[in-house]
Structure formats: C-alpha cells, structure tokens
Amino acid sequence: MFTGIDEVDWASLRHADGSAEDVPGLLRGLASTDPTERAGALDGMYGAVHHQGIVYDATLACVPFLLALAACEEAADRGGLVELLVSIGRGHAPEEAAEAGDGSGPADAAVRAGAELFATLVGDRESGVRRAAAEALVRFLDQPVRVLGLLRQRITVERDDQVLLALTESLGLFIRRHPSHSAEALDTLLMLGTPPYDPGLRLAALGQLAGCAPDLLPVDLVPTVVELLGERSEQRRSGRSTPTEGDHSDPDSLAGRLWRLRPSDEEGALLLRTLHTALGGRVGDRIALLEGQLSSPDAADRCNGMWMAAGLFREWRADYTVPIELIGDQLGAGAGPLPGVAVSDRLRDAAVSVLGDLFHLAAPAADHLHALVTARPDLWVQRWERRAQTLGGPLKSLARSGDPRATPVLAQVLAQPVVPDDLGRVIVHLGRSAAPLAPALRHRLGQVPLDSPETYDRAVPLLSALTALADREAVPEVLRLMRGMADGVRLRHRVVESAVRALDVFGGGSEEVVLVLRGLLESECAGVAAGALWSVEGDASAVLPVLMRELTGRDAYRRRAAAEVLARLGSSAGDAVPGLARMVEAECVWERAVGAGALWRVTGEAERVLPVLRSAWVERPGVRGVVAACLVDMGAAGAPLHDLVEAELAAPRRHLVRSGGHGGQDVLEDERLLAVCREVSAG
Question: pTM here?
Fold first, then answer.
C-alpha cells in the first residue's frame, strides 16, 4: 500500500499547517487496526491535508496511497477513504474560490487516474464502500455507457437501503453530467419512484427527477411526497427502517463530534433537502410541502421541516404565515420519537433558532413564543461556560419580532445582577414599546467600567438601545463614557463613535456636549462628530471645513461618513460639491452611491446622479437600500429609476443571499429594502 511513500520529499510539500512531514504518519494511521488511531489520522487529513476542501500539493501526493488503501480489503473504514477521495477530486486549489473546484483541475485528474478502482468497489462486500463508490464512479470514470450499466446492474441486486439511496442520487448526478446518455437513466429513476420500492427510495427518486427532469414529476407532487413521508415515518416508528450508518466509535474525534451534530434522521433531512433544492423557485409547492412536513405526527419530520423552512425563508420572498404558525406550534410540542434526545428540547431549539432569524416575520408565532417565555423563566438567559451571558433564544426571538410583550420580561432581566451582553442589540427591534426600559439602560450604561477589556462589549449594545429610543436623558452617562474611558480600552474608537451617534440622535445639548464634540473634530471620528455637532448647533460653518477635509482622506469609511453628514447639510454644503463629485467617480460602489446621494441633496441636480445610482443598483445588490433611500428623498425627480424599484418589488428572490451564516441578517436587510421600495412606489 505504501510502496514509494518514503521516496516522496514530503518536507518540500505543504498543507494547511505548513510542512507536510507528518503526512506519511497520517497515511499509515489510516491503515491502523486501532479505531482511535484511524479516527485521529482521518481528522488530520481533513484538518490539515484537505482543510476546508482545499487541495495542496501534499493532498495530490496522497491520492495514490489513498487509492491503494481503498483497494485493500484488509483495511478498515474504506468507505470513509472513498469519501475523502471524492472530496479531494471535487476540491480546489488554495488560491481558488470553493466554486472553482469540482471541475477539471489537477485534483480531479489525480483521482480520475485511479477511477477504475471505483468500478470494482461499487460491488464491494462492505455496504459503506459500495455507498461511497457510487458517486465516485459517476464523477471520475469517464465511460458513461459502462458507468450507467454498472449502476443499473447494481440496483437490481442491491439489498441495502442506504446503498440504494446512494445509487439513486448517483443516477441523478449521471443525468446531469451526461445528458446525451440520460434516457435509460431516467427510465430507471421513474421505476425507482413507483411501488413496490421503499418510500424513502421513492422520495429520493422524486428528488433527483426534480433536479434533472422536472417535467417528469407527477402532477400531484406535493400530496405524493407527503404521503411517502408519512409511510417512511411509520416504518421508522415501527423499527422497520435501516438506521443511518456512521463511524462514531471515537466520540472525542472530529468525526465523532460532527456525527453528534447530525440530524436524528439524517437520511430524511437529505431526502427533503434534495427535493427542496431542486424545486428552487417553485415556492408555492415548497410551502405546501413544508406544511405537510410541519404537520407530520413524526417529530423528526417536523424537525427536518423547520430546517428546510429556514433555507426557504432566507432565499425567497412569499407569504409564510402558515408555516411560521406551524413552527410556532413546535415550541410546545413533545410527541414523537427522537432516540437519545428529549423531543421537546430538540423541537423547541430548532423552532427558536428558525424564528430568531426572521425578526418581524416571526410575528405569526409570537403568541407561542410569549407562552414559552412566560412558562420558562429559566430560558430567559443563556449561560455559557467561560463566556458572558446572552439572552435566551425564546426571549430574543420574541423581542426581535417586535412584540411589546417582551418589554416587561426584559425589564426583569435588566434588574438582575448580570445583564446579557446582547440585550441592547435586541431592544432596538422593539421600537418605542421599549421606552420603559430607558431608565434601567441608563443605569447600566453608568455602571460600565471605563478601563476594562469588557468596556466595548458592554457599552456599545447599551448605546445602540438608547440611541434607538432617542433617550436624551442619557446624555450624562454618554458623556461620562466619552470623557472617562482609558486610552488603552479595546476598540475605544468604536465606543466613542457609538456614543457620538447617540448624541447626534439626541439632538440639542449643553455647552459640555458641544465642547466634547468639538474636541473630536481632529480625531478619527471627525465626520460623525461633525454630524452630531450639526444636530446640536445647526452651524454649517463650524463643521463644513472638517467634512471637506474628511472627503480628501484615504479612509473610504470616513469619506462615506462625511458624505452622509454633508447630505444632511443640504444646500449649506455647496463648497463640498467638488469633493462629492470626485466620490461619484470612485472605484468603490458604496462610495459612489453614498456620494451621489449627498450630491443630490446638496445640489438638487438629478441628471448628474441618476446614472450613478442606476449603475450602483445593478452592480451591487447590497447597496440598493442606500439608493432606494435616496429615491425616497428625490420624489418625482427620481422617477426615471422607479423601474428598478418596481422590478425589485416584483422579484420573488431576496436581493442578497450569502452562503454560510448570517441568514437572519440577510432576511432583515432584504425586508428593510422592500419597505423602502414600497415607500418609493407609494411616493
């Protein structure tokens, strides 16, 4: 298996952690008879040699040895080795984006060189190997007629449900990769989607058809899927289905920890995720399907439905009242088997997580959230080991939905000795209904230490809340913070900027406020300080020179901050027109959009800024909120761009969808954009 391994100059090769000198030890560890050593070696492969899907030169050097290991029947966990080879073949070089992989690069070529092995492994005696080899066969053996024949032949003799599912998924992959050879593969998929095949397998076939031949789907797709889902759930409850396989012999390994994070019904989650993904913009069908999932008597189906709903809510615009109400129902649900985990806790946590990312869209579930918050004070605050407290999910979700019933509960939390760090950021979503909290917030701000590593984390959320409430009585506490904060405080300038923005919103002020703000006109917060001074004094001559100077600086953030203040000055900022004119020609889209908005408010010259605003809107969706806000101010003068607004309001897909986390912020930003667009349209 390891012939030639010592002839490779591993020291000259690299992986994520640097030198690849440790790779021979990892490869030999994969062949160990000790399960713990094998698990540690696999951790090392994914953690360094193939970190986050990246293919290094050391990764490529491993491929021949991994192929030899996978071919050795005496080796254990060969299914995991085939999965690793598939991941490497789909990987990307360090300098490429993840989307650049899965193509014809050196990693793909390296695995293809040994692809004949997968034709053998698809009939291996170990089900885990057969399952992993099905995808590898389609991806890397470039003989479509032979590959299809092997898949179809295997389907006729295979008896393991998990392998049959993998073969079904591989048929869909085959059709997408080899459309000219798809006729027989489609016939096989259609066959797998009918009785007497297992309901899970039929669901898998429908999911693959939805992705590669949607015209062949049954007209009654949703009722069919819901019925199959019920049949499959009944099999699970009666113990007739095969549990999802996996190696979790070492619970402390990376693989073991990832195993524990998987859904209780991972197979069901994958089946429905495949179908939802394939249905894409058929939002009506997907909502109906979610309603079926969320109404299932099986708790695992409902749990999976909630995670599917999260993806739909994040990407598409629609009326989600009914599915959100059904998600709210899960906050008090407790029936149905989820092995090893308290059902109510799993359902509740999933529901709270989804609702918390919906902000005001979670309103249809607010009654359920309030009932849970009232019944479970122990959930008001989440205490983390070696970390500060945060608001508990149910209370945070209720407050983010804008429900005023969160206010008295938050008042009780504020009265506790230790206040969660994120409380202030949550209060901003309650609007004026949170006004009764202002005295307690002021008190807490007055207790923030002025020379602590925690100053930023404690002060900024409180300042955000008081700013949202426009609480002018908080001026003494804000000034205490600004004047007394030690120079070495972490992110001190961010704290000062938040405090200045609070004073800006509070408006009018004492001589002391004016002196503090004037003292910041030469600092890195000069632009926002000038804006606050304008709010307090209304004297353009005192701030205009500062703002014009900021426009010429190197910091793009400070230039945008200055332009935003100049926009508020309006015609009083005429001397800044040359600087704003330079901004609208900047390379940065954000800078052009902000500069154009300011130039309009200062000069009223619509013809000069409309082309800039249009190009910014088209070029970068994230800037559309800034442009739409400018169109509100422009009124009839912005009419030439109203086609953009109407198209946005009619678009079914959210304007900004980012992969990874922050899904809730994407929804919030998109809903805010829609609100401003409606204001423009109503105009």
Answer: 0.85
